[in-house]
Amino acid sequence: MFDKVLIANRGEIAVRIIRACREMGIRTVAVYSEADAAALHTRLADEAVLLGPAAASESYLRGDRIIAAALQTGCQAVHPGYGFLAENADFATAVAEAGLVFIGPSPGVIRLMGSKTAAREQMQAAGVPVVPGYHGESGPSTSSGFGAEEQGSGEDRSPKRSFVKLQGSRGAEEQGSEGEWSPKRSFGEAQGTLSGGAGEQGSRGDEEFLTAAQEIGYPLLVKAVAGGGGKGMRLVQTAAELPDALVSARREALHAFGDERIYLEKYLAQPRHIEFQILADAHGHIIHLFERECSVQRRHQKIIEETPAPLLAGDEALRQRMGQAAVAAAQAVNYVNAGTIEFLVDAERNFYFLEMNTRLQVEHPITELVTGLDLVKWQLRIAAGESLPFEQADLSQRGHALECRIYAEDPANNFLPATGRVLQLVEPVGPGVRVDSGLARGDVVTPHYDPLLAKLIVLAEDRAEAIQKLVSALRQYVLLGVTTNLPFLRDLLAHDLFQRGETTTGLIEQHFGDWQPAQDPPDLVLIAAALGEMLERGEEARRRGGEEMMNDPYNPWRELSNFRIGEVNQK
Amino acid sequence: MPIHKQFTYQIGEQQKTVTIEPVGDRFRVRVGEVEYIVSVRQGEPDQLDLEVDGQQWQAVVARTPARHYVAVAGETWELEKPRPQRSKSHAHGSAPDTGSLTATMPGLVREILVAEGSEVGRGDTLVVLEAMKMELRLTAPSAGRVRRLHCAAGQVVERGQVLVEIEE
Fold it and tell me: Count of domains in chain B?
């Protein structure tokens, strides 16, 4: 087992990995930007190395500095977390070349799964059903060095792409996979991040696309080969719309990902998103840890996930077929370590491979709770060469787990980001209640990173109880000083459609479009505010005033200076 | 002589005042016209155990110069400090309300696409703001000329901060 591991990430996932390492007696090295000098993950690790200024491009994306930090502190391995460089094949390669172990699959597999068309072809060859589509003449894919690139944190794919918030792809959003913010555009993209594929597809390829589209049938999606997470898509309803869609999709793909290659995919109406967790050791043994369903998302941002998937309730046969397909998919690429296969399920309950994520995912805790396994620890063991000691038949799920994500955003301001200082933080506790958080009281939430602050996860015997437990935990959750989606989550969980399990991707747009927080505080709120202020002033008076003030009959705070913390107020 | 402490909060367009008067080992608290008997114990700073008319509650509070935050009864509330009553007449500073571009979210100024003196049309993108990997293009609310820039590329700005002044 490793002696020392460097965690190349921040926030809640860095804290998660540090905790797993500690439990295994592995020493930890955190890396941090100037903005995170006092962050929880920085303080929790045994050692911490400063990477650079706040901007991700100057810190968490500086693979060279990260590797240098690992070498200088004597680490044997690097855990990339999710987002940032987790799916950057060049980084994985550089880690290996520096004599370190990258905790994840091989660079080749990362690169392969980073190309949607290459991944689809592999899957087809392995007999895994894919969404019907057409790839065209895919040009060679190139990558620029990771050091020069912008971002991609949160759950995004490799940062060899840079992103723009895209307009006009609303209709296509349902077939996106990972829910995520649309990351920003790179200002470095003008310098050499254009792939060799640029221009090779070109307009001469359009004829083929048009023909293929006829076969696939409408409506269909034009998607970016180098994209992912539902970005860079165009929904096309008729053949007449296709030529323009191809042109504009290529332009956006080039701009956002540095690679203009696109492909076509049949559009499935109201698909359900079911993903399967994979664990594979370096000795060829691959198992799945069942499924997760993203019940509620908003514009590619996942909000609530659960397992078992309501869709698969009572359909053990479908679960087994999908699980077997997920394992076959991983086997087809000789996958090692933890990964996730995403499927779409249509109205007829046919399932199709959508994409594979070659990293640990944000929502991994729900799988951990129903299976009893610690995925981060298994990642470390696998990377250290250990074999998985269980067979598929040994594994089962028990109970129902639900996760909701707490974001620094203002649902009443169109869910735009919110910043501020965490003035008060009280995380819920109780049986079956888990909080994965990167926050501590006093932390400052800045605009530089992903808006995900924490995850609240519950485990209960069944779905109904899990919902009740989550609602109760949300009511306990106190986070003051930064606007979050907590009030919104409370209302969302209480909604009838959610309670019945009839969630579709349109739930928020359809039913919460005009959501506003409640405006009229009950008197209790005002009483609490006033007493809080009064007590604070009393404390201050006592600190400042001393004897004289306490005895002055005209001092209005004289009464308060007799207050003691922790005692019921009595003279 | 009874000692009252008064605290006033802004709720939307209205103000509400809370008056606290110690009575023995409790407080008589008046909110508007309604009176309550309250006892309070403070554990951690700003974490209060309240008993209001016989019912128990746990509240967590926090304050910044501009607002109060209260979490109680499973909900979170934000209260503003009272605005001066004359606030309407203070509106005429050097920045006119119409024709300014303000930040609709906190973030970093990624790019400024105009200069002082530039002519702009309504809907033209003037500033690109970025926060948490989201890019927001702020557009001119009306046609006119850029009178003054109040931000610089790379600067972190607050929500509501005036970024560009436009004169028509």
Answer: 2
What pLDDT, on the 0 to 100 scale, is given for residue A505? 66
Residues B42 and B103 grouped into a single domain: no
3 state DSSP class of A465:
helix
Max avg pLDDT among A41-50, B24-33, B105-114, B134-143 = A41-50
> ipTM > 0.90?
no
* Inside any domain, residue B87: no
CA A229 → CA A173, A224, A272, B69, distances in Å?
10, 11, 15, 36
The pLDDT value given to residue A551: 59
Q: Contact A524/B18, CB-based, under 8 Å?
A: no
Name, in order, each residue with C-beta under 8 angstroms of B45's C-beta and a sequence gap of 6 or more: A536, A539, A565
CA distance A342 to chain B (A): 24
Residues near B19 by beta carbon (within 8 Å), at least 6 away in sequence: B4, B5, B6, B29, B30
> B46 and B20 share a domain?
yes
Which of A 283-312 lie inside 8 A of B, CB atoms? none
Residues 132-161, chain A: which have Cβ within 8 Å of B? Answer: 151, 153-154, 156
β-sheet with A220-224: strand ranges across: A133-134, A262-266, A220-224, A234-236
CA distance B93 to chain A (A): 26
Same structural domain for residues B57 and B113? Answer: no
Size of interface A-B (CB pairs under 8 A): 208
Do A447 and B77 lie within an 8 Å CB cutoff? Answer: no
What is the residue type of A122? Q
Q: What would the pLDDT profile of A80-112 be if each residue is shown by its tens digit?
A: 999 999 999 999 999 999 999 999 999 999 999
Above 90 in pLDDT, residue A232? no
Indicate which CATH number applies to the domain containing B51.
Answer: 3.30.700.30
| CATH at B134 | 2.40.50.100
Domain co-membership, B28 together with B64: yes
Q: Which residues of A touch B73 (CB under 8 A)?
A: 522, 524
Query: What is the extent of the structural domain holding B117?
Result: 97-167
pLDDT tier for residue A205 given thresholds of 50, 70 and 90: low
Nearest CB partner across the interface for A559, out of B3, B74, B132: B3
Is residue A62 pLDDT above 90, yes or no? yes
Distance (Å) from the C-alpha of residue A552 to the closest C-alpha of chain B?
A: 13
